[in-house]
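Exercise 7b. Backbone tokens:
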């Protein structure tokens, strides 16, 4: 993944999580307003799905800020389970996207390749070093 792909992927992930958190907060706010007015409510499973799809931080913030669904069980315990689940899988997903190539090999950083060239006594020694096939390769211009 080159710098452009990295920037695009990171930007899309940030936009996705910002969008999901926005809609999750809006959903909690709408549900609170509807509960105060005695109107039809947003089902709890919809609020939990929004939280599960990336809006858990907004769900916790909305609960505290709006004082909405703070004592409701099993909603509160389900929301905590979603947060724990996300705390496990989001870092794993990010590591897979940004540090593992499609073949499953760990990426070799440019710093590693530059380090080999820096500590070698001559350019010929660099070529003799056996390296695993990196995703990003530094090539000398000849």
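Sequence design result:
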């Amino acid at each position: 993944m080159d710098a452009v792909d990295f920037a695009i992927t990171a930007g899309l992930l940030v936009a996705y999580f910002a969008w999901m958190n926005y809609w999750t907060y809006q959903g909690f706010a709408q549900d609170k307003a509807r509960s105060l007015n005695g109107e039809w409510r947003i089902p709890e499973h919809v609020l939990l799905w929004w939280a599960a799809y990336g809006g858990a931080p907004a769900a916790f913030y909305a609960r505290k800020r709006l004082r909405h669904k703070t004592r409701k069980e099993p909603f509160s315990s389900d929301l905590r389970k979603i947060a724990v689940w996300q705390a496990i899988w989001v870092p794993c997903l990010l590591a897979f996207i940004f540090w593992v190539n499609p073949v499953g090999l760990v990426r070799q950083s440019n710093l590693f390749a530059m380090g080999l060239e820096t500590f070698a006594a001559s350019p010929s020694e660099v070529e003799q070093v056996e390296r695993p096939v990196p995703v990003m390769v530094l090539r000398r211009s000849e």
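Instructor comment: Residues 3-37 form the longest helix (35 residues). The radius of gyration is 24 Å.
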